[in-house]
Inverse folding.
């Protein structure tokens, strides 16, 4: 099999396929983990997920907790818990409704907590916070370390990884898929496209129009600061993703869209958006006012029209599978989605449905999934 | 946040930035000149407007020359903003900076990067110890505060700046314990093919020879061809050890000043994603520019040492050339007039640069001082050693950007300034490919640090 | 910790008529007006400005031009200031940064902030 895209989804899929005895080659345009997979904020979050994503996200989380055992490296995963803050009573009410809705559906992982419980978890947060939603088994990991762990584990199982090998053309000829790269043509029976922001163009080559577009998501990282916040934080009423790594640096994001130079594969920083983000942080942690921002960057990622990824077989061509368009929330999903996709490709049974992620769901003929509670601005991204 | 609109934003008030700004203003353009220091001059003319006459005299005529430039700047219509730390320049010519803790933005029609040079890293054992500084740092202390080492000092490495500092110290009555020169006699032999060109630049060559002669006649211990440099000490430097011709040497001192040449400061041109090339002679990356200093990013220009090392006089001429290019781009100058005014500048520049190939060849930094042994600290901020870097390479780390992810190399406060070239060369050597192929760190804003509070506009 | 100064004014320097008073780790110092904080400390016998957050190894100014970030100190409560780029001012309170244990953190000021609009 051939996998296009050496990000977490491509490498996880390759790893799980190889574990099942399949010979896999991965083609990566730049180097593995160069874009969204390697430069995201590292959140391992089931909190606030779209209802359709929850079963897959929960199965993935189970894999995160045993990553060291399966791939031989924990990817820097810390089960710190994730907390979404409510900054006023109206937001707390929103949180309450969300938790209640999940409970009705049988999901117990999100728990509503009050102000006192928030202060116990993060004693340093500003006192206007009134409560929030807590997920204790979520956490964070180190993105590039995780991608590298999957690459090394996959290579150990015989997966061949070709870096600096961008797929320019894909075509099916007879029973074989042929992928043209500047360095030569690769062929295989089955093709998996996990090319993130670049997957849409490849899908278009087989006549599959996917309403996805690329964006540059911004993040900033600070100088080191003494430990003050163990869990990963999000906010209900504004865009925030916030975490302190073990080395003391703080990574701040939250679906901050920068500007994008797509042909150059580059996301650029838009400073006006960063000001708002910095203010959110200093509102919540006034003592960080003098903390220096060391670096700001942007990763390139694909967003779909309905904020859900595309996972599963092509409807236009045989022996072609997709896994992309995670809308800035795909890092946590990597381990589980790779496994689930490998199972699907090999015809293994799984309880987890991928129907909501079908590539043809956007077609006029098929009805769009009913929108559920998931205010996009409040979901901390990875 | 205030927004200012100008024709041209110039970054850096050194030789190139000052001369370009004055020239641009003379052509009727509205110019803002942003500089991080409290007074103009850059590093070469550091503190030139503030230095007392006695200090200017001690530093020599080359330094005093900066005064003319600074006076021209003061007499011009250029809006000079001191204490301005620029933290982002965009491809759309927007410049954002911090001044007195406040964010300011300039929207310009063209930007000139005149950010000069910085000293090449000198990674040897013990180079992080207190008491070890770059020769350039010591010279800045001399220029800006009239300070020099209180006890006999050891100068180590190679290159014109090191010898100039020695000469200035002699004039100031500062005791030099030893000059530990990494240059070998055969380096002069190796550079012989450039000697003819260098002889045509006789005034420069003679100046250098005079410096060397006065150092020798002062009776200073001068070791040549020094290898295996290392600084001894646990909490601070106590000695410099090295070998000459296989014989171990040790010079006790509390103050070691290191230097092995300067390299372009490319933080801005890199952050703008301009094309850079690896200069095989100067062993560094330089931005690729046209005859007027314009990068492959339209409207962004570079002049001075930031475009490739040429020295202060060349920088001033390049600044003027860039000014002509910018003025023509902005419709202030016809092509014919631009060419007419450029011709004498180009002649002057050519004469000025004649000495360079010779200097680059003689004083090329030694490989052992660029690609150090495993135990030597490469990234001073995150404390990543050359050995750790080589381990990353074994795990598939192909370039500096992966090195950041593998072990935080280059991720500290200096953002790779102090380790970038070393990391490139260590990885290139370990992989057996060229430094140009390995490339450099992707540089991202903020180029200068900014706090969350400042960013939030508090 | 003060030792014999590593740097001193050269013989031809006219001693500065204006000085400013500041403190380094609560120790009072009198230094020439107009110098950078780093220069002022070096001539006052302070040649080690901080310990690194990674291994707590001692560091001092290396480049004096804003490139190396080795001269970071806390000034008037604000950490990580580049002392080679900042001019001394009367009454400045300067502190060394002693590795990880000295990273900024003030226990939260328990206050009810306005809910941001």
């Amino acid at each position: 099999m051939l996998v296009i895209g050496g990000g977490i989804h491509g490498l996880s899929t390759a790893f799980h396929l190889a574990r099942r005895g399949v010979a896999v080659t991965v083609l990566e345009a730049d180097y593995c983990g160069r874009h969204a997979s390697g430069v995201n904020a590292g959140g391992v979050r089931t909190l606030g997920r779209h209802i359709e994503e929850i079963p897959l996200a929960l199965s993935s989380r189970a894999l995160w907790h045993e990553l060291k055992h399966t791939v031989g490296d924990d990817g820097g995963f810390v089960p710190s818990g994730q907390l979404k803050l409510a900054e006023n009573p109206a937001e707390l009410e929103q949180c309450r409704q969300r938790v209640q809705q999940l409970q009705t559906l049988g999901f117990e992982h999100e728990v509503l907590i009050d102000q006192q419980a928030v202060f116990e978890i993060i004693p340093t947060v500003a006192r206007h916070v009134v409560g929030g939603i807590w997920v204790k088994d979520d956490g964070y990991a180190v993105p590039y370390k995780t991608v590298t762990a999957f690459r090394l584990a996959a290579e150990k199982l015989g997966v061949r990884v070709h870096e600096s090998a961008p797929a320019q053309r894909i075509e099916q000829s007879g029973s074989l898929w042929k992928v043209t790269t500047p360095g030569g043509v690769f062929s295989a029976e089955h093709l998996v496209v996990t090319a993130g922001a670049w997957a849409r163009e490849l899908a278009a080559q087989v006549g599959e129009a996917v309403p996805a577009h690329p964006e540059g998501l911004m993040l900033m990282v600070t100088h080191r600061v003494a430990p003050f916040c163990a869990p990963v934080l999000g906010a209900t009423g504004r865009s925030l993703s916030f975490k302190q790594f073990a080395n003391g640096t703080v990574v701040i994001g939250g679906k901050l869209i920068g500007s994008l130079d797509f042909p150059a594969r580059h996301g650029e920083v838009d400073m006006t958006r960063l000001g708002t983000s910095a203010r959110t942080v200093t509102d919540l942690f006034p003592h960080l006012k003098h903390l220096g921002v060391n670096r700001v960057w942007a990763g390139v990622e694909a967003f779909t029209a309905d904020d859900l990824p595309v996972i599963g077989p092509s409807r236009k061509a045989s022996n072609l599978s997709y896994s992309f368009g995670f809308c800035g929330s795909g890092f946590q999903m990597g381990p589980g989605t790779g496994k689930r996709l490998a199972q699907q490709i090999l015809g293994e049974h799984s309880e987890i449905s991928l129907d909501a992620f079908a590539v043809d769901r956007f077609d006029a003929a098929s009805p769009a999934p009913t929108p559920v509670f998931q205010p996009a601005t409040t979901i901390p991204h990875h | 946040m205030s927004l200012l609109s100008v024709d041209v934003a110039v970054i850096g008030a050194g030789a190139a930035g000052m001369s370009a700004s004055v020239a641009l203003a003379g052509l009727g353009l509205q110019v803002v000149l942003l500089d991080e220091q409290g007074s103009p001059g850059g590093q070469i003319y550091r503190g030139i407007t503030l230095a007392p006459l006695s200090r200017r005299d001690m530093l020599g005529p080359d330094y005093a020359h900066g005064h003319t430039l600074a006076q021209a700047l003061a007499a011009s219509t250029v809006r000079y903003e001191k204490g301005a730390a620029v933290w982002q320049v965009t491809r759309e010519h927007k410049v954002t900076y911090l001044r007195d803790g406040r964010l300011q933005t300039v929207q310009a029609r063209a930007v000139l990067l005149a950010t000069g040079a910085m000293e090449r890293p000198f990674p040897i054992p013990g180079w992080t110890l207190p008491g070890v500084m770059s020769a350039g740092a010591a010279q800045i202390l001399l220029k800006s505060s009239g300070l020099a080492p209180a006890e006999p000092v050891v100068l180590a490495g190679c290159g014109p700046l090191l010898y100039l500092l020695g000469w200035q110290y002699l004039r100031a009555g500062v005791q030099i314990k030893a000059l530990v020169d990494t240059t070998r006699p055969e380096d002069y032999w190796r550079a012989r093919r450039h000697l003819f060109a260098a002889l045509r630049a006789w005034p420069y060559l003679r100046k250098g020879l005079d410096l060397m002669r006065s150092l020798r006649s002062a009776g200073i211990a001068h070791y040549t061809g020094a290898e295996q440099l290392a600084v001894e000490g646990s909490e601070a430097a106590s000695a410099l050890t090295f070998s000459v011709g296989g014989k171990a040497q040790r010079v006790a001192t509390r103050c070691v000043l290191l230097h092995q040449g300067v390299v372009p400061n490319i933080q801005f041109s890199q952050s703008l994603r301009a094309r850079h090339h690896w200069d095989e002679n100067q062993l560094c990356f330089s931005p690729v520019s046209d005859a007027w200093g314009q990068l492959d990013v339209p409207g962004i220009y570079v002049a001075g040492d930031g475009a490739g090392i040429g020295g202060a006089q060349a920088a001033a001429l390049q600044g003027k050339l860039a000014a002509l290019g910018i003025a023509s781009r902005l419709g202030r100058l016809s092509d014919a007039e631009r060419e007419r005014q450029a011709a004498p500048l180009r002649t002057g520049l050519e004469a000025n640069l004649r000495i360079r190939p010779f200097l680059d060849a003689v004083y090329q930094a030694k490989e052992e001082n660029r690609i150090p042994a495993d135990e030597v600290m490469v990234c001073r901020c995150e404390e990543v050693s050359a050995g750790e870097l080589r381990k990353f390479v074994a795990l598939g780390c192909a370039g500096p950007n992966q090195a950041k992810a593998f072990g935080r190399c280059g991720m500290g406060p200096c953002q790779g300034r102090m380790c970038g070239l070393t990391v490139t060369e260590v990885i290139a050597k370990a992989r057996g490919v060229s430094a140009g192929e390995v490339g450099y760190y992707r540089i991202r804003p903020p180029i200068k640090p900014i706090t969350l509070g400042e960013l939030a506009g508090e | 910790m003060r030792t014999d100064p590593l740097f001193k004014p050269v013989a031809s320097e006219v001693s500065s008529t204006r000085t400013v008073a500041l403190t380094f780790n609560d120790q009072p110092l009198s230094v020439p007006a107009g110098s950078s904080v780093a220069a002022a400390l070096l001539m006052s016998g302070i040649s080690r400005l901080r310990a690194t957050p990674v291994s707590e190894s001692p560091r001092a100014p290396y480049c004096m031009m804003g490139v190396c970030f080795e001269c970071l100190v806390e000034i008037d409560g604000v950490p990580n200031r580049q002392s080679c780029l900042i001019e001394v001012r009367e009454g400045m309170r300067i502190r060394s940064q002693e590795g990880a244990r000295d990273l900024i953190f003030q226990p939260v000021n328990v206050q009810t902030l306005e809910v941001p609009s």
Summary: Helices of chain C lie at 37-43. The CA atoms of residues 37 and 88 of chain C lie 5 Å apart.
